[in-house]
From TrEMBL, chain A:
Organism: Henosepilachna vigintioctopunctata
The EC number(s) this enzyme carries: 2.1.1.220
Protein name per the record: tRNA (adenine(58)-N(1))-methyltransferase catalytic subunit TRMT61A
Coiled-coil stretches: none
Keywords: Methyltransferase, Nucleus, S-adenosyl-L-methionine, Transferase, tRNA processing
PANTHER family (alphabetical): TRNA (ADENINE(58)-N(1))-METHYLTRANSFERASE, TRNA (ADENINE(58)-N(1))-METHYLTRANSFERASE CATALYTIC SUBUNIT TRMT61A
Domain tRNA (adenine(58)-N(1))-methyltransferase catalytic subunit TRM61 C-terminal residues, every copy: 72-301
Family: Belongs to the class I-like SAM-binding methyltransferase superfamily. TRM61 family.
Domain of life: Eukaryota
Function text: Catalytic subunit of tRNA (adenine-N(1)-)-methyltransferase, which catalyzes the formation of N(1)-methyladenine at position 58 (m1A58) in initiator methionyl-tRNA.
From TrEMBL, chain B:
Organismal lineage: Eukaryota, Metazoa, Ecdysozoa, Arthropoda, Hexapoda
Keyword tags: Nucleus, tRNA processing
Signal sequence annotation: none
InterPro entries: SAM-dependent_MTases_sf, TRM6
GO terms for biological process, alphabetical: tRNA methylation
Pfam family of the protein (one): Gcd10p
Cell compartments where the protein resides: Nucleus
Family of the protein in this entry: Belongs to the TRM6/GCD10 family.
Name of the molecule in the record: tRNA (adenine(58)-N(1))-methyltransferase non-catalytic subunit TRM6
Species assigned in the record: Henosepilachna vigintioctopunctata
Any single GO CC term annotated in Swiss-Prot or TrEMBL for this entry: tRNA (m1A) methyltransferase complex
Length: 306, 422
C-alpha cells in the first residue's frame, strides 16, 4: 500500500524496500503472516544474505532507518517506481527508467492527465505514469493477455494505486480502444509489435484539444512504418530518438610516479628505488560492457480539432 | 481550447525553428530576416497556421494571414528529370545563375517559397543532373530558407526545453531534455510534499518543470532558491500557471533564507560558542551575497538592493518566513542545478531532506560530482549514490533512408542519492 505519496511510518501491508548494498535490495511485505507454497499460513520471514528478517517486525518502523540483521544491517526504504522497475517480477520484457523518464516527458504528463497505455506488460511504466498524474489524472491500460491484466490489476491494488488506474483486457490492434475511450485522452503510449495498427484507432481517443503520443519499438523497421502511419493520420512534430544511460563507477586511484630526474645527476647509486612517490586522484570509469540498445522512442503531437 | 489573446506567451514555430514571444497589441516580432506584425494572430486559436505576407510598399515588413485550408501548403514541386548519381556534378559557385540580389528582390516582392524555389530550380544548371534524393534534399534545404508558414503553439515544458537548448544550451545550464526528464523522475517529485530546488540560471525552466509536475489544485509546494536578487523566470511566466499553482512556488534568495532560518528561527537557543561560529560564517555569507548582488545589478541594471528591499520588504520577508516554516517540517526532494560547486549547497540543504527521500544534482562537469559522490558516501547519510551520463541521438526517419542525424550533442552528468537516518 506504500506507492501512493510520501509515507513516514511502515504500516501493515506496506511494500518495503530492504536495501543492503547498491546491488542487493529486495521488496518485501510488512505482514506478520504469509501463505506458504503448500497453502498453509506461516510466519512471514524473508531470507537475506545477512540473515533472516521477520517482516512483521518492520511495522511501526520509520522509512529510511537502519534495521539490524544477524550478520549486518540493512535500511528500509519507501518504494519508488524506479526501485519497482529494478525488482519487479518480469512477466514480459520491460521498459527501464531512462526510457520511462523520456516517455513521461514526451507525453507532457502532469497531475490531471488522462493517459492510455498499451500493453500493460509487467506494469513498469504504469507505476511511473501513475506517480506523475495522480491525484486527479487516470491511467487506462490495455493488454490482450487476460492473466497478465489480472495480475497487474491486483498489483496496482496491493500498491495502493487502484483508484488511479483501470486495467482492461483488449487487443487494441484489432479492436481499437473502445467506444467509452473516445475523446478522453491527453496522452497515448504504445509498446506493441505493430504499433501502426493501433495508431489507426488513436485519433478518436484524443480529447478535442489534441494530445501527445509516444511509441517504443526496438527495431528500425517498426519505426519507419510507425512514422509513416502517424504522418498519414495527421500527427505533427514526429520525432524519433534513442537514449541510453551509463552509470559510472567512481573510484579513488593511486598511481606511482617514477622519479627519473635523479638519473640526470651523479649519485652513489643507492636508494634509487626506495623513494617511491604516488599521486592520488578520483576518476569515473564506465563498465566494460554497456547496454547498447533498448528501443527507439517515437513521439508526435495530435493537433486539436475544432 | 483558449483563443490567443494579448499578453499571452506564444511559441512561434517555423518548420523546426521555434521562438518564444509575448504578444502585445500592435507588436512585431523578428523572425530570421523578417519583421512580422503579430496582430493577426490575436483571437485565433493555438495550432493555427499563418502565412507570412509582405506588406505592400515596404522592404522588410511582413504581416500574417491565417491559412484555412492546410492542404494548399505543399512544397512538393514537380521535378521532371533526375540523374542517377553525382558523376556529372562539379562544385561551382556559378551553378546558380540568379544573383543573391535577384533572389532577395524576389523575396521582397512576393514571399512564396514555392515560387522562389521554382525560380531557383529553373536557374540552376545542375539541378536536373542531381539524383532524386539530392533533389529532394536541395528542395528541403531551400524551402527551409524561404518557408513562409508559421504555426502558433502554446508553450509547454517540452517545447520550451527544446527551444532553449537549441538556441543556446547555456541558457538552461546545458540541461538537455533527457536530463530534465530524469531530474523529474529521480527526484520522485509528485503532487504532494515540499520540494527544494536550487537553480542558478535555467531561465526558470527547472522550477517551471517541477511546478508542472506538482500540478494545479494539489497540495505540493516548491521552494525555489536562487543566488541573486531576482530569480530568472522566463519559462515560468511562459507556462502561465494558474495563480493558485504559481503561489505554491516560493522564490527565495539562498543566502537570505538560510540566514533567516539559522538566525531568526533559533535565536537564543545556541550557546556562545555556536554563535561565534555563526557570526563568522554570516560575515562570509554576507560578503558573498553582496558580491553576488553587485554582479546581478550590473548585469540587470536593476534598483539597488537596499532600495528594493525597502519597497517590498514585507514580500521577501514573508516568503522567507513561509519557506522556513516548510523547511522545519522537512522536504521530500532536493534538486540542484547549479553553476557553483554543489558540495557546500548540498551541505547546507541536505539536513532538511527527510529520510528515504531523493537528492538529484545536475552538472555539466563530472569532477564536482565525483567529489560530491565520496562526500555523500563517507561524510553524510546517503545511499544508492549514482553518477550517470546519457547518450541521446535523434533520427531521420524516411522510407529506405533512416539513419541517425548527422549532428549530436553531449549532455552532462547527473548524481542521484537517497537520504537515510543514521
Amino acid at each position: 500500500m506504500s506507492f501512493d505519496g510520501y509515507k513516514t511510518v511502515i504500516k501493515e501491508g506496506d511494500s518495503v524496500i530492504l536495501y543492503l548494498t547498491i546491488n542487493q535490495y529486495y521488496i518485501l511485505e510488512a505482514k506478520n503472516t504469509a501463505v506458504s507454497k503448500k497453502g498453509a499460513t506461516v510466519q512471514n520471514i524473508f531470507q537475506t544474505p545477512y540473515g533472516p528478517i521477520i517482516c512483521g517486525d518492520l511495522i511501526g518502523k520509520l522509512y529510511g532507518t537502519k534495521i539490524q540483521l544477524k550478520k549486518g544491517w540493512a535500511y528500509v526504504l519507501q518504494p519508488t517506481p524506479e526501485f519497482w522497475t529494478e525488482i519487479l517480477p518480469h512477466r514480459t520484457q520491460i521498459i527501464y527508467s531512462t526510457d520511462i523518464s523520456m516517455i513521461l516527458f514526451y507525453l507532457e504528463l502532469k497531475p490531471t492527465s488522462i493517459v492510455v497505455e498499451s500493453g500493460t506488460g509487467s506494469g513498469s511504466l504504469s507505476h511511473a505514469i501513475i506517480r506523475r498524474i495522480k491525484p486527479s489524472g487516470h491511467l487506462y491500460t490495455f493488454d490482450f493477455h487476460e492473466t497478465r491484466a489480472e495480475v497487474a490489476r491486483n498489483e496496482f491494488k496491493d500498491h495502493g494505486l487502484g483508484e488511479y488506474v483501470t486495467v482492461q483486457t483488449r487487443d487494441v490492434c484489432t479492436n481499437g480502444f473502445g467506444k467509452e475511450m473516445e475523446n478522453k485522452a491527453d496522452a497515448i503510449f504504445l509498446d506493441l509489435p505493430q504499433p501502426w495498427l493501433a495508431a489507426n484507432y488513436t485519433t478518436q481517443v484524443f480529447k478535442k484539444s489534441g494530445g501527445r503520443l509516444c511509441s517504443f519499438s526496438p527495431c528500425v523497421e517498426q519505426v519507419q512504418k510507425m512514422c509513416a502511419a502517424l504522418s498519414n493520420l495527421g500527427y505533427q512534430d514526429i520525432q524519433t530518438v534513442e537514449i541510453l544511460q551509463s552509470q559510472f563507477s567512481v573510484q579513488k586511484k593511486k598511481m606511482s610516479v617514477l622519479n627519473l630526474n635523479i638519473l640526470k645527476t651523479q649519485n652513489d647509486g643507492k636508494c634509487e628505488k626506495s623513494e617511491k612517490e604516488y599521486v592520488n586522484f578520483i576518476t569515473s570509469v564506465l563498465p566494460n560492457s554497456l547496454p547498447g540498445h533498448t528501443g527507439y522512442l517515437t513521439s508526435a503531437t495530435f493537433p486539436p480539432c475544432y | 481550447m483558449d483563443n490567443i489573446k494579448v499578453g499571452d506567451y506564444i511559441i512561434v514555430q517555423r518548420q523546426n525553428y521555434t521562438k518564444l514571444h509575448k504578444l502585445r497589441s500592435h507588436g512585431t516580432m523578428a523572425l530570421g530576416s523578417f519583421i512580422i506584425e503579430m496582430d493577426n494572430v490575436i483571437g485565433e486559436k493555438y495550432f493555427d497556421t499563418f502565412q507570412i505576407k509582405n506588406v505592400p510598399n515596404t522592404k522588410k515588413n511582413y504581416t500574417l494571414e491565417k491559412i484555412e485550408d492546410l492542404s494548399s501548403i505543399s512544397t512538393s514541386l514537380n521535378v521532371e528529370q533526375s540523374g542517377s548519381d553525382n558523376r556529372n556534378i562539379e562544385a561551382d559557385d556559378n551553378n546558380q545563375t540568379m544573383s543573391s540580389e535577384e533572389i532577395n528582390k524576389l523575396k521582397d516582392e512576393d514571399l512564396s517559397s514555392n515560387n522562389i524555389l521554382e525560380k531557383l530550380i529553373s536557374n540552376s544548371k545542375t539541378f536536373n543532373t542531381k539524383t532524386e534524393y539530392s533533389q529532394e534534399k536541395y528542395i528541403k534545404k531551400k524551402s527551409k530558407k524561404y518557408f513562409e508558414y508559421i504555426q502558433i503553439r502554446k508553450p509547454s515544458i517540452r517545447l520550451l526545453a527544446q527551444m532553449f537548448y537549441r538556441q543556446d544550451p547555456a541558457k538552461i545550464l546545458g540541461i538537455r531534455i533527457d536530463y530534465l526528464s530524469q531530474i523529474l523522475s529521480y527526484s520522485n517529485i509528485q503532487s504532494e510534499g515540499t520540494h527544494i530546488v536550487y537553480d542558478s540560471g535555467t531561465s526558470g525552466l527547472i522550477p517551471a518543470a517541477l511546478l508542472e509536475s506538482i500540478g494545479a489544485n494539489t497540495c505540493g509546494k516548491l521552494i525555489h532558491m536562487h543566488p541573486g536578487n531576482e530569480c530568472q523566470k522566463v519559462a515560468f511566466l511562459a507556462m502561465e500557471f494558474p495563480e493558485e499553482q504559481a503561489k505554491r512556488c516560493i522564490n527565495v534568495n539562498l543566502y537570505s533564507v538560510l540566514r533567516h532560518y539559522h538566525q531568526t528561527e533559533t535565536k537564543g537557543l545556541k550557546d556562545a560558542c555556536d554563535r561565534d561560529v555563526d557570526k563568522q560564517s554570516e560575515e562570509n555569507v554576507e560578503m558573498k551575497e553582496y558580491e553576488e548582488l553587485e554582479i546581478m545589478e550590473t548585469e540587470n541594471n536593476e534598483q539597488p538592493e537596499a532600495k528594493r528591499r525597502k519597497l517590498d520588504k514585507s514580500n521577501w520577508q514573508v516568503d522567507n518566513e513561509l519557506a522556513c516554516k516548510l523547511l522545519r517540517d522537512g522536504v521530500h526532494s532536493i534538486i540542484i542545478t547549479a553553476k557553483e560547486h554543489p558540495q557546500s549547497i548540498v551541505d547546507a540543504l541536505e539536513p532538511f531532506l527527510l529520510p528515504s527521500r531523493n537528492l538529484v544534482v545536475f552538472s555539466t562537469f563530472k569532477e564536482p560530482l565525483q567529489e560530491l559522490y565520496f562526500h555523500l558516501k563517507n561524510d553524510l547519510s546517503f545511499l544508492a549514490v549514482k553518477l550517470t551520463t546519457n547518450f541521446m541521438r535523434n533520427y531521420q526517419v524516411l522510407p529506405d533512408r533512416t539513419h541517425p542525424e548527422v549532428n549530436m550533442t553531449h549532455g552532462g552528468y547527473l548524481l542521484t542519492a537517497i537520504k537515510v537516518k543514521q
